[in-house]
Amino acid sequence: MNFYVLEDDPIGQQRIQHYLPTSFITDSPTKLLTALAADTHPKIILLDLEIKGLLHAGINTAKMIRQTDCVSPIIIITTHDELSLQTFQSHISALDFIQKAQPEAQFGKKLQHAVQMAYQRLNQFDLKMPVWLTIHNGAHTETFDLNTISHVNSNNGRHYINVHQSNTTTQIRNTIKQINQSHDKFLQIHASFCVNHDFIQQYRLKDKTLLLTTGDLLPVSRRFKHNLSYLQS
């Protein structure tokens, strides 16, 4: 497992390196982002919030990380307890918030517990080999990793659709019907919506909606509800 740390205090750097000796540690958000972008393996990220006098440097760095990486656990290590609520409201999905100013034994236990939770979080994602899916885009084709597509919806007419992935949405010229037929993981739930069943979290029969693991809430029409009959208890 690779660990990446943003910390500007030399003593703080040594402290973390004592517990995580193989860590990549830097006081530069730019260097951290560059290193993360070059590493395609699972990783755990530790961020201090205040870097070189900039109080929100850690939060801003976390936001940039989340633009391309919604999987890697982020652990906050800081002296600024007052920023805990703001950290939560920033939607960076921080796994834990560790206070620096505590006895060493307590700090070590807290850090080790957070790292253990991070390992468990990564295991839950069940990192899969890509399943490449080629989809027509008008006269051309686009290739997607099926494991990253949560759902597809029609866009401004029947012949344009939006392909929703973890961190991006791609508009192509195609139809919901054709997408639904392109792979058996796709389920059509509405004239305008098709979902990857791996992303289904809950079928809300009473509300006629489908909650995805991404947090998206999609409508289910009467015409296509039979495709979700296996989810009804």
Task: Find the count of extended strands (DSSP E, 2+ residues).
Answer: 15
**Shape-level CATH architecture of the largest domain:** 3-Layer(aba) Sandwich
Number of domains: 2
Number of helices: 6
Structural Rg: 21 Å
User: What fraction strand?
Assistant: 25-35%
Q: Could you name the CATH class of the largest domain? A: Alpha Beta
Written overview of the protein:
Helices cover 27% and strands 32% of the residues. The protein is of the alpha/beta class and 233 residues long. The chain has two domains: 123 residues, Response regulator (Rossmann fold); 100 residues, LytTr DNA-binding domain (OB fold (Dihydrolipoamide Acetyltransferase, E2P), Beta Barrel), CATH 2.40.50. The strands form four sheets. It has a five-stranded parallel beta sheet with strand order 2-1-3-4-5, with helices on both faces. Strands 10-9-8-12-11 form a five-stranded antiparallel beta sheet. A three-stranded antiparallel beta sheet has the order 13-14-15, with no helix packed on it. β11 and β12 form a beta hairpin.
Summarize the structure.
With 233 residues, the chain is α/β, with parallel strands linked by helices. 27% of the residues lie in helices and 32% in strands.
What are the main properties of this structure?
233 residues; alpha/beta; Rossmann fold; 2 domains; five-stranded parallel beta sheet; five-stranded antiparallel beta sheet; 6 helices; elongated; LytTR_DNA-bd_dom; phosphoprotein; phosphorelay response regulator activity
